[in-house]
Amino acid sequence: MSDVATARALLESLGSYGSHFAGDDVAHLEVSGDEVVGSHLVPGLDVDIEQIDDGIEAHIHLREGVRIANPVHLCFGMLPTEGLQRIVMKVDVDAGSFASVRAHCTFPNAIDITHKMDAVVNIAPGATYEYFERHLHGAEGGVQVVPKTLVRIGEGARFKTEFELVKGQAGVIDFDYEADCDARSTLEMITRIIGRGHDTVTIRETGRLNGEGARAVLNSYLALRDDARAEVYNTLSASAPYARGHVDCKEIVQHRAFAKAVPIVEVSHPLAHITHEAAIGSVDSKQLQTLMSRGLTEDEATDLIIEGLLS
Amino acid sequence: MGILELHDITLELGGKPILNDLSVDFWEGHVHALIGPNGAGKSTLASTIMGLPGYTDHSGDILLDGESLRGVPVDERARRGITLAWQEPARFEGLRMDRFIAAGAKEKSRANVERMLTRVGLDPERYLDRKVDKTLSGGERKRVELASILAMEPRIVLMDEPDSGIDVEALQRIFDALAYFKEMGTTVIMITHSMAVLEHAEHAFLLCNGHILDKGSVDKISGYFANNCIPCHHENEPAPEEEMITA
Q1: Cβ of B92 and A305 within 8 Å?
Q2: Cα distances (Å, whole numbers) of residue A129 to A74, A164, B34, B115, B154
Q3: CA distance A129 to A148
Q4: Nearest to B94 among A289, A296, A309 (CB)
Q5: B107 to chain A: which residues are within 8 Å by CB?
Q6: Domain that includes residue A75, residue range
Q7: Which of B52, B94, B148 sits opposite A311 (nearest CB)?
C-alpha cells in the first residue's frame, strides 16, 4: 500500500478524513507503525523525525512567540492486526507560543498490538500547549497502550491534556503522566475512558505544584462494564504558597466490573490548598428512572448518562 | 371510563400500608389535582402509576385504555404515553440540555428543542449548550424538566408538586404549560399543596391515609385548603382535637 493510501486508510478509520487536509494553514503528521506516511507543517513549527526500531523518534519544536491558530493534527496508528508501535517524542514549546494538538490513535483491526509512547514536554514561560489524545480501537480490544509522559511547565505557562477512549474496546491501558509546575503555571489533565469486556486500565497522574500560585486539576472519568477493571492513582502535591489544586475521579461500574480510585494529596506549605473527590458506583437510579420515564430503554438511558459523565 | 383507571390499589412499603384500597379514574384531556397532607400517599401514587422500581408490588390493577399495566416496565409505560415530572428532578453531570430534552422527544430536531425551551421561558441562546447539572437553580431545573416533557408529547403527565421551589415567573410558565397540555389534549395529574396550582385543575381528589377521601370540583375540594386541609386524623400529621374538621 502506498504512503498516501495508508495515510488515507488510517484517517478513514477515524471517521475524520479531510480534517487533516483542511488547508495549507493546518499542520498534520501521519505515522503508520514506524513510517511517516504523510505530513505538512506550518511556519514556526518544526518537526524532525527519525526511524527507530519498531517506531519513530520525533522532535517537535514550536518557536518562540509563534501562535498556531488551527489545531495541529497527529495521527498514530497501525492497520495490521499485530505489531509494536513505539513513539519517542520530545516537545519543546518556546516562550510565549501557543499550539493545540489533536492526536488521533487508531488501531481498528488490532488483535495483538502494543502502542508505546515516551514523551518529554518542556513548556517555556508564558507558553500554552494543549494535547488532546483520542483513541479509536477495534472490537477485539487487542491493544496495549502504554503512554508515559514527563512535562515541565514553566512560569506562567499552561498545559492541558485530555486522553479519550470511548469507542472500541480499550484492551490494556497503562497510563503514566507526570508534571512539574513552576510559579503561576496551570496544569489540567482529563481522562475519559469506557472499559468493556476484559479491558484493564491503570491511570497514574501526578502533578507537583512547585511554584507560587501554581494551579492544577486532575480529572478522571471512567465507565466500566462487563469484566473491565480500572485503577486510578492521582497524586497532587503542593509545596509553594498559594498553590491550588483539585483531584476528581468519577467511575461508573456495571456488571462484574471493578474500579479502584486512590487520590493522594500532599501539602507541604501552609498557604497551599488541595482538595479531592472520588465517587465510584452504579448508574444513579434517579437519573436512570428519569430517562426511562421519557421512554428510553435502560441501556439507552445508561449510555446517555455515561455520555454526560465523559463529556 | 377514564383513560387511566386505578382499581383497588393497595401498596405496602416497609410493611406499612401507603395506598389503601384506592380506586380512581382520570379523564382523558382533563387536568386533575391530587391534594392531601404529607404522607397521604400522593407521590407514592404517582410512582405506582409510573411503575417505578419498588412500587410495582401492589394489589389491584392499573388500566391504561382499559389494558392492564401489570408487569409493564417504566420505559414501556412511557412509550405508551405516561410520564412523570419529579418534585426534585435529577441532575446529570456533563449532560447537555439539548441532548437531555431531545432524548425523549417525539421530534428530536434542534429547532424543536429550542421551541420547548422558549415555551418554558428559557432563552435557547443562553441555555441550549448548558449542562443539566448542579449549575442550574432549582427553578431552572424544573423548567428544563417541563421542556423535556413537553417535547415528549405524552398522553398522561404526572406532575409532583410542580410549584415547589420556584419563583413567581417560573410558576406562570408552569401555568402556561398546563394550558398547553390542555390544548394538546394531554391528561394531567398533578400533586399540589398550593391553592394557586389547584385553581388550574378541573377535577380534584383529596387523598388521605392512602385512599381517596373526597373528590369533585375544585371549588368543593379547595374547601379543605380553607380548613387547613385536615379533614381527618392523619398518623403522620396528628392534629389537635379542636382543629379536626370532618369532610
Answers
A1: yes
A2: 14, 17, 59, 40, 49
A3: 17
A4: A309
A5: none
A6: 3-310
A7: B94
The amino acid sitting at B85 is A
Q: How confident is the model over B151-175, as a mean pLDDT?
A: 91
Q: Please report where in the chains the cell 391504561 appears, as a residue.
A: B64
Give the pLDDT of residue B244: 38
Pick from A286, A287, A295: CB nearest B104: A295
B94 and A289 in contact by Cβ < 8 A?
A: no
pLDDT digits (tens, 9 = 90+) for A41-65: 999 999 999 988 888 999 999 999 9
Residue with cell 509563534: A66
Query: Does B78 contact A293 at a Cβ distance shorter than 8 Å?
Result: yes
Q: Which residues of A187-216 are buried (b: 16+ CB within 10 A; e: fewer)?
A: bbbbbbbbbbeebbbbbbbbbbbbbbbbbb
Give me the residue from A289, A294, A310 closest to B52, CB to CB: A289
Q: How close B75 comes to chain A (CA, Å)?
A: 5
**Cα–Cα nearest to A22, from A54, A56, A70, A55:** A70
The C-alpha cell at A65 is 512567540
Distance from CA of A78 to the nearest CA of B (A): 32
By the 8 A CB rule, do B239 and B230 touch? yes
Give me the helices (H) in chain B, please.
42-50, 74-79, 97-103, 110-119, 124-127, 138-152, 168-184, 195-198, 218-226
Quote the ipTM score: 0.91
A99-154 pLDDT, tens digit each: 999 998 888 888 888 989 999 999 999 999 999 998 888 777 788 999 999 999 99
Name residue A74's amino acid. Answer: L
Number of structural domains, chain A?
1
User: Span A229-234, mean pLDDT?
Assistant: 95
Among A121, A140, A131, smallest CA distance to A180 is for A121
- Which residues numbered 126-155 in B keep a CB inside 8 Å of some CB on A? 131-132, 148-149, 152
Do B93 and A308 lie within an 8 Å CB cutoff? yes
